[in-house]
Design goal:
metal-binding; D-Maltodextrin-Binding Protein, domain 2; alpha/beta; about 40% helix
Length: about 260
């Protein structure tokens, strides 16, 4: 699995630098009309970008408080939090990363939001008639997936398929590993790949793609939750945003509209 590991080290370093620049260049002060002069900092999985952009826009309009957000692969976000000791909130694509963060005393509270399910993404119309797991192993199918060491979807996929004894098969059929679920979808949309495993909700913003459900991924589901970073010095404000994202009627509506599985 060296081809997967090679992706990880440099990405974390670049990510931490980007976060530092975000704080350095954007400043600590906002307009006088804000409820608090300091913006919140959210680390958010790339799979939630579309819905979170909308939620942050609504939140800022309603409560006049800015939220800075850094998107990326879940493992990269977790590593950045551990290294930088900055930020207020962490929203990975799978709550297993929050469990790791809690074990490392990086996160305190967490609030469940919604579910995402792993599916096989293909181009609209499914030109290669992919309908089952075995089709992904065909010589004429260019299959890509996200790195298990960096992205939640890769980690969840590897875990599910390993339990079924199918991981070695799909690993051998994979022509390339990507650092995030969005990069997998981008490859298929651009025509540089024919199929890849993504979260169903991610495809909401890819009108030229569709998905196929295969039995081997039936249990490959991720719980999306938001956690409060232990070192935050804006505890009350962080809790307010976390409650807004996890339980407000507006947030639940947005998550449903963007293809997430929101349970009552």
């Amino acid at each position: 699995m060296n081809r997967i590991s090679l992706l990880a080290g440099g990405s974390v370093i670049v990510f931490v630098i980007c976060v530092a620049l975000l704080f350095a260049t954007d400043g600590d002060r906002v307009s006088d009309g804000d409820l608090d002069s300091r913006p919140l900092m959210l680390y958010c999985a790339a799979s939630n970008r579309a819905v979170m952009d909308k939620l942050i826009q609504d939140y800022q309009l309603e409560f006049q408080r800015r939220v800075h957000v850094q998107y990326g692969p879940s493992q990269t976000l977790l590593s950045s939090i551990a290294v930088s000791k900055t930020g207020d909130l962490f929203l990975p694509a799978d709550d297993s990363y929050l469990k790791i963060a809690k074990q490392k005393q990086l996160v305190t509270q967490q609030f469940p939001i919604a579910l995402m399910h792993a599916v096989v993404a293909v181009r609209k119309g499914n030109p290669l008639t992919i309908s089952m797991f075995e089709d992904l192993l065909r010589d004429d199918v260019r299959f890509v997936q996200a790195s298990p060491e960096m992205a939640a979807i890769g980690k969840v996929t590897q875990g599910s398929l390993t339990r079924l004894g199918r991981w070695d098969d799909i690993d051998a059929a994979t022509i390339g590993y990507r650092t995030s679920v969005n990069e997998v979808a981008n490859d298929i949309e651009a025509g540089s790949a024919d199929a890849g495993i993504v979260y169903d909700a991610v495809l909401h913003t890819y009108p030229n793609l569709s998905f196929v459900e295969v039995a081997e991924l039936k249990n490959a589901t991720s719980q999306v939750s938001i956690g409060i970073i232990a070192t935050t010095d804006q505890q009350e404000a962080a809790e307010h945003f976390a409650h807004y994202v996890s339980s407000s009627a507006r947030s639940r509506e947005h998550y449903k509209n963007y293809g997430f599985d929101v349970r009552d």
